[in-house]
């Protein structure tokens, strides 16, 4: 389902509601969460109202920049830590993240893949890149079944500079495979802001575009939540399209 909300604020409320619902309903909740700007407010709203149920939560890494230390500004870990983990005061054992500075990145992939086999993802929240990427599954790659090291597109390298406080050299990322995200029990994909309106049009109106985000269309357990700004070329009113 594609649902269009009046504002980004309403999308943030929906994110918090979905997270809360999925935390309560599963005995062993395993969340896979995008970092980045889109879900920040939703995470904060979720953190404001969550109770002791958070103790049963496990977090599995979606992606990380290769070569960027997890504790440095702009790493995927650091963004999620600021927006969610620290607010929830999660224990270190609850968080299972790729280490982008490891000497053995393949082992990082295998470690996270083993974790997912043991603890299947119950809830994934994805953003969409300006080039239609999901996690760091970039356009041009086949649908990946496992965690992988990928070459970043020029768009991703440029856009990602907004996360860093100084120009940062990025070439590769480590990411869950698109198929692993699709295999989650429940997935929501969140897109907000006028700057995403062009890519939204491509995703929903250009079947030839071959974008990673398009691989998530057509599943009953995957919903897309957009605000009116992002949806401006595909709809004139808040609604389902
Ligand atoms: O940051 C991440 O963890 C994801 O890899 C990435 O896919 C992100 O969700 C999009 O690039 C959108 O980013 P914004 O929300 O910052 O636009």
TrEMBL record:
Gene Ontology terms: cellular component: cytoplasm
Q: Name one Pfam family in it.
A: Glucosamine_iso
**Superkingdom in the source lineage:** Bacteria
Q: Does the keyword Hydrolase apply?
A: yes
Q: Which GO terms describe its biological process?
A: carbohydrate metabolic process; glucosamine catabolic process; N-acetylglucosamine catabolic process; N-acetylneuraminate catabolic process
| Domain Glucosamine/galactosamine-6-phosphate isomerase residues, every copy | 7-215
Name the chain's protein: 6-phosphogluconolactonase
Supply the enzyme class, top level: hydrolase
Family matches, as InterPro entries: Glc/Gal-6P_isomerase, Glucosamine6P_isomerase, NagB/RpiA_transferase-like
What keywords tag this UniProt record? Answer: Carbohydrate metabolism, Hydrolase
User: What EC number(s) is this enzyme filed under?
Assistant: 3.1.1.31
Query: What's one GO MF term for it?
Result: identical protein binding
